[in-house]
Amino acid sequence: MVISDVREGTFSGGLPYLAVGSGEPLVYLCGSTPNHRNPKPGAERTLTLRTINPLARAGFEVYFTNRWPGMAPDISFAEVAERHADAILDHFGQPVDVLGASTGGSLALQLIADRPDAVRKAVVACAAYTLGPLAKRTQEEMLRAVEETGGYSPELILDLIQIKLRWRWIRTLLAPLAMLAAKRVTIENPTDTVAMLRAEDVFDVRDRLRDIPPRHWWSAARKTPSGRRKCLRRRRSGCRTES
Question: Which of 6, 24, 35, 97 is the most exposed place for a label (fewest CB within 10 A)?
């Protein structure tokens, strides 16, 4: 089945979303993005739709949701989760299913810890109760690059690719691609990027996992060098996990 009906909108609180499919609503909290807006038509949107179309084909109305533009520089992860909870309840009038990936997974954990009234069930993918040492170091490098240059360097992009693929030898082969990507990635409002990086840097709900009802979430974690798989080693809540 081809998903051709793509709708754009904005939740209350200024959260932009891209919606596809029909059926039960599923709010997809995306990973870290350079800009707090919907993916533009072209490569950005194509990659996004490849991610969420399978969920739409499975029978969900998927809302690919980003953070809002114009964030306060000192915002906390709890405040970000609070605005998402309010947006969900304002729009749907009831708790809905949530899937969070990477930074979105961290946000999903904060959301069900703080505002379980807005979430029916949650899937937490590629995330854990806090950043692991490698992920924290990488985000510190991202933060420093954005603060100093307003963007990402080719070296940083190569490091990020290397973390995901775990093959060091591929670095040389991908160097030209990283140079091109660094030139093409434009951070329109570095303040938003910096605010989210700082907020996630201190995110930690490890001591609250035991209070989250097991029925509330499923951890779809994979073992990666970033150290995000800690959910599998801290099953205090009795959550179901898949790796």
Answer: 24
Task: Give the DSSP H or E segment for 119.
Answer: strand 119-125
Q: Do both 109 and 138 map to the same domain?
A: no
> What is this structure's pTM?
0.82
Distance of CA 96 to the CA centre of its chain: 17
Q: What is the pLDDT of residues 150-164, one digit of tens each?
A: 877 656 655 555 545
Tokens of 41: 């038509």
Joined tokens for residue 37: 């807006």
**115 contact partners, CB below 8 Å, separation of at least 6:** 81, 82, 84, 85
Any idea which residue has 């990666």 for tokens?
224
Domain shared by 79 and 181, yes or no: no
pLDDT tens, residue by residue, 51-94: 999 999 999 999 999 999 999 999 999 999 999 999 999 999 99
